[in-house]
Amino acid sequence: MIVRDTLEGYGIVSRLFHWLMAVAIVAMFALGLWMVRLDYYSPYYNSAPEFHRSFGMLLLFALLVRWLWRAANPKPQIDDLTPLEQKASYAVHWGFYILLLAIMVSGYLITTLDGRPVDVFGWFSVPSILQMRGLEDRAGDVHRILAYAVIGLAVIHTVAALKHHFVDKSTILKRMWSGPSPPSIIPKKEMHR
Amino acid sequence: MKARLAALAAVMTVTVLSTSAMAADFVVDTKNVHASINFRIKHLGFSWLTGRFDKFSGNFSFDDKNPDASKVKIEIDTTSVNTNMAERDKHVRGGDLLDVDMFPTAVFESTSVKSSGPDKATIVGNLTLHGVTKEITIEAERVGGGADPWGGYREGFTGTTKFALADFGIVRDLGPSAKDVELTLNIEGVRPK
Fold first, then answer.
1. What distance in Å separates the CA atoms of residue A175 and residue A172, rounded to the nearest whole number?
2. Buried b (16+ CB within 10 A) or exposed e, A14-53
3. Interface of A with B (CB under 8 A)
């Protein structure tokens, strides 16, 4: 099992980051939508937001580690994309990182702007850094709108990946699933379209 | 000459009379914050949750010789609701409770004041909250009044009222014991010089 990324593909760490965060982000979006509609007397009225906050803080930590990991690894080449697709892919990936960071920071702010720390599963708590009462409404707007935006981006990302896989017959989706193959068995592919 | 003097005397008499009969107008002392608008609502029937509106303004007229001629008007900035928790305040300001984006102001304006004892009165008036105008009754008490040490003149009151949130179209179900909210207004007014 290849741990680090290579020029040919992604190692296990990057692939786990990718798929686990993909599932987590969609799940957190659904949880967020659901929990704000809960009845006051719902048994999940307190526990659902507690889980959302706790897990969100772990995701923020995961995002930062993922950044470091990506920076410390070679970037697999995407030479079977057109220059335009390369630019788009670059924009989408940075879009993800920036949106996710903004979503997680704004979520953290909603809870901590009054000076209270945010508790993470009762294991530890992250202190409040910025206190500014009233800003929680704007933080909430940012959190909600960017959450929709990141799901929109995920749809674009998914459609693009499926297009590359099924239409262009590219290995882009496969290499995110199964990691780098030894160079000898890389299938010959059309390099220019 | 005599007639002119008589007319002057009459005018002066009228002026003096009307000055003493006219109720003095007081501005609620929000500048130096000797006034507060507090509310409380039961949490699950187990305790009182208290909060306040940090921003409001108002004025009243009051004459201790003719208290029934008093009038009061208070305007509350509903966005300034403060229950000492950012997340909860965000929720209270939101669409299923105060909906402050739609209804940023609440107003109380008295329609009648009736003495109910020494330094006590029943104030009936219209409260506009959440876009709904309804008559409420405030049981008021004059705490004190007189010259302040800095050359001004002040009168201070406290008043309490209670109403059902649903009467003002706030239908979020907070439980059977949290249908009513109690409001306490501590109002000190300064008579402008």
1. 6
2. bbebeeebeebbeebbebbeebeeeeeeeeeeeebbbebb
3. 39-41, 110-114, 116, 133-134, 136-137, 140
Q: What angle do CA A11, A12, A14 make, to 5 degrees?
A: 70
Q: What is the CATH number of domain B23-190?
A: 2.40.128.110
Helices marked H in A36-82: 47-71
CB B90 within 8 A of CB A137: yes
How big, in percent rounded to 5, are the helix, strand and coil portions of chain A? 65, 5, 35
pLDDT digits (tens, 9 = 90+) for A26-58: 999 999 999 999 999 999 999 999 999 999 999
Closest Cα in chain A to B178? A40
Q: Note whether B173 contacts A133, CB cutoff 8 Å.
A: no
A11-31, pLDDT tens digit by residue? Answer: 999 999 999 999 999 999 999
Residues A92-135: pLDDT tens digits?
A: 999 999 999 999 999 999 999 999 999 999 999 999 999 998 89
pLDDT digits (tens, 9 = 90+) for A142-191: 999 999 999 999 999 999 999 989 998 888 888 888 877 655 444 555 44
B172 contacts in chain A (CB < 8 Å)? 40
In this prediction the ipTM stands at: 0.80
Structural tokens at position B179: 């249908």
Residue of A40, A130, A138 for testing the chain B interface, max B β-carbons within 10 Å: A40
Angstroms from B79 CA to nearest CA on chain A? 8
- Count other C-beta atoms under 10 Å from residue A147's C-beta: 21
- When scoring B41, B46, B54, B87 by the number of chain A Cβ atoms within 10 A, the one with the most, hence best to mutate, is B87
Average pLDDT, chain B: 90
Identify from A112, A128, A137 which residue to disrupt to test chain B contact, counting B C-beta atoms within 10 A and taking the largest count. Answer: A137
Q: Which residues of B touch A110 (CB under 8 A)?
A: 86-87, 90
